[in-house]
Specification:
It is a single chain. This protein is rod-shaped. The longest helix has 18 residues. It is mainly α. The N and C termini lie far apart (28 Å). It has one domain. It contains two helices and no strands.
Length: 27
């Protein structure tokens, strides 16, 4: 994965929501 992709707002937001979803289901 390229650095530019890692720093893209849409990618960070997707990862953020995925983290919340994962935490809610696998706490």
């Amino acid at each position: 994965m390229s650095a530019s992709t890692c720093h893209s707002p849409w990618y960070n937001r997707r990862f953020y929501f995925f983290s919340l979803f994962w935490a809610e289901n696998y706490q």
